[in-house]
């Protein structure tokens, strides 16, 4: 369906509760009216009755897939059998069906109803046309919704705009399944005062499991609600980086009654403070299984990073008399071009080459003023200890009297590899270098890092459905026999 393909802009997502319930209620009333129509006109043509029932069935499926409740399969089944009764013309079935719908409509999320309603507005209101149009829409929509547990759990997590909501949901979800859950506060960063928490869960009496499934619940902005498209992918912020992986780990962990724990941190996308704080949990983990989008491969290593600021100072003056001042921008440009063309950065047979990005520049105030300040933020993906590259940059910068400031660095990490999986080298950074409580770390997940952080973040539904099993498989291989 076209409407569900359009990404919803964040401002539109925050629909007032009133609007949401008015919509749901109008739909509900319409449907109840239709049911009454069938109830009162027993001789109403069977095809009309049948389409009504099909609509109700699809609506129920939509409902069943839009929530993650333990007994939704059962509920779905009960409703289906009621619908069969309605279709056969049993009067008694109407009452209970109506009650069930009252509940359904309260639970269908706005994200599921929205595309449906916007298409309905454009439809022809002639009764029979409307009915068949409504049926096609609902049918199409409910087909798009996947009733596998991992997909619906992923969507539930992705549709939470804040990290804190996702944390609270995960903690409750685990507590309801007899996990010993610890919520660990993480200090807030800068002027962002939002409360931050890590979630750690272990089985009762097994507080230090040898395997810990680990990923992060924070995402990069902006919030994009989940949507399934015809191409077989689930879209939305965090579907692969990393809430879909969190959902898979949650499900996978249910298969272990001991030896396995779960750690979901915050701040992975910003300052890594969540993982730094997690070191204080005093865990002693043999295998840390970290979820990031690795396209179902297990990397043998992860490149390190080096983030530096280059600060150039000059003397400002009128641009007609440059000899009176000293430009801050000119030497910075020279240094940057020298850094970009430099050939002697470290190389590594496994990790490949050092990669440099000049990511941010600023300087000057106007075209007719010699600039007295300029700076550039640069970031290396390092394949050696970062200090080697740091020294090279400092040496070149000195030549141009440019001051350097390193604000973050970590070396590459060799990762634990399991036979039987395709492999590669991860050029991107993860939380792993900041974790100090494990012996071996393994990086694995579905989805591509190239889709993460984009407005088209996505994960293949096939891959997502298989992911919990893969995590179970990996943990089973690593658990001591
Ligand atoms: C629950 O978890 C906490 C924190 O990890 C731990 O100190 C405590 O011993 C655990 N309790 C049980 C019964 O496992
Ligand atoms: C996980 O546990 C469920 C329920 O006990 C079982 O049906 C399933 O086969 C298990 N999965 C694997 C991969 O062991």
UniProtKB/TrEMBL annotation:
GO MF terms listed in the record are: hydrolase activity; metal ion binding
- Superkingdom per UniProt: Eukaryota
Q: Which residues cross the membrane?
A: 21-41
InterPro entries named in the record: Bact_exopeptidase_dim_dom (IPR036264), Peptidase_M20 (IPR002933), Peptidase_M20_dimer (IPR011650), Peptidase_M20A (IPR050072)
**Cofactors that this protein relies on:** Zn(2+)
Q: Where is the Peptidase M20 dimerisation domain?
A: 300-399
Keywords of the record: Hydrolase, Membrane, Metal-binding, Transmembrane, Transmembrane helix, Zinc
Q: Which family does it belong to?
A: Belongs to the peptidase M20A family.
Protein name as annotated: Peptidase M20 dimerisation domain-containing protein
| Species of provenance | Galdieria partita
């Amino acid at each position: 369906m076209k409407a569900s393909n359009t990404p919803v802009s964040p401002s539109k997502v925050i629909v007032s509760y009133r609007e949401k319930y008015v919509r749901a209620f109008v739909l509900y009333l319409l449907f109840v009216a239709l049911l009454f129509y069938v109830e009162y006109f027993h001789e109403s043509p069977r095809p009309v009755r049948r389409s009504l029932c099909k609509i109700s069935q699809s609506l129920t499926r939509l409902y069943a897939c839009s929530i993650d409740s333990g007994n939704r399969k059962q509920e779905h089944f009960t409703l289906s059998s009621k619908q069969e009764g309605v279709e056969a013309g049993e009067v008694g079935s109407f009452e209970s069906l109506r009650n069930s719908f009252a509940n359904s409509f309260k639970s269908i999320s706005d994200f599921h109803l929205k595309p449906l309603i916007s298409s309905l507005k454009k439809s022809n209101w002639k009764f029979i046309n409307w009915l068949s149009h409504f049926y096609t829409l609902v049918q199409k929509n409910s087909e798009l919704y996947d009733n596998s547990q991992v997909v619906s759990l992923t969507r539930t997590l992705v549709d939470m705009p804040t990290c804190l909501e996702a944390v609270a949901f995960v903690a409750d979800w685990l507590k309801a399944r007899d996990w010993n859950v610890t919520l660990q506060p993480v200090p807030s960063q800068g002027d962002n005062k939002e409360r931050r928490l890590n979630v750690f869960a272990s089985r009762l009496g097994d507080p230090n499991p040898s395997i810990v499934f680990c990923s992060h619940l924070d995402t990069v902005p902006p919030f994009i609600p989940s949507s399934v498209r015809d191409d077989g992918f689930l879209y939305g912020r965090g579907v692969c980086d990393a809430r879909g992986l969190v959902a898979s780990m949650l499900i996978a962990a249910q298969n272990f009654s001991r030896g396995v724990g779960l750690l979901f941190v915050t701040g992975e996308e910003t300052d890594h403070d969540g993982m730094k704080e997690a070191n204080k949990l005093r865990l002693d983990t043999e295998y840390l299984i970290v979820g990031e989008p690795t396209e179902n491969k297990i990397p043998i290593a992860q490149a390190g990073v080096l983030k530096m600021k280059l600060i150039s100072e000059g003397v400002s003056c009128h641009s007609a008399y440059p000899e009176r001042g000293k430009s801050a921008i000119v030497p910075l440009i020279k240094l940057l071009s020298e850094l970009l063309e430099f050939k002697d950065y470290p190389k590594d047979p496994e990790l490949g080459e050092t990669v440099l990005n000049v990511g941010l520049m600023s300087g000057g105030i106007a075209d007719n003023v010699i600039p007295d300040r300029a700076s550039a933020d640069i970031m290396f993906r390092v394949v050696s200890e970062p200090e080697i590259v740091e020294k090279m940059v400092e040496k070149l910068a000195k030549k141009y009297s440019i001051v350097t400031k390193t604000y973050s660095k970590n070396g590459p990490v060799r990762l634990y590899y399991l036979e039987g999986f395709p492999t590669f080298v991860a050029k991107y950074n993860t939380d792993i270098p900041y974790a100090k409580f494990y012996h071996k770390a393994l990086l694995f997940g579905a989805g591509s890092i190239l889709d993460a952080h984009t407005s088209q973040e996505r994960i293949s539904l096939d891959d997502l459905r298989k992911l919990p099993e893969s995590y179970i498989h990996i943990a089973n291989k690593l658990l001591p026999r």
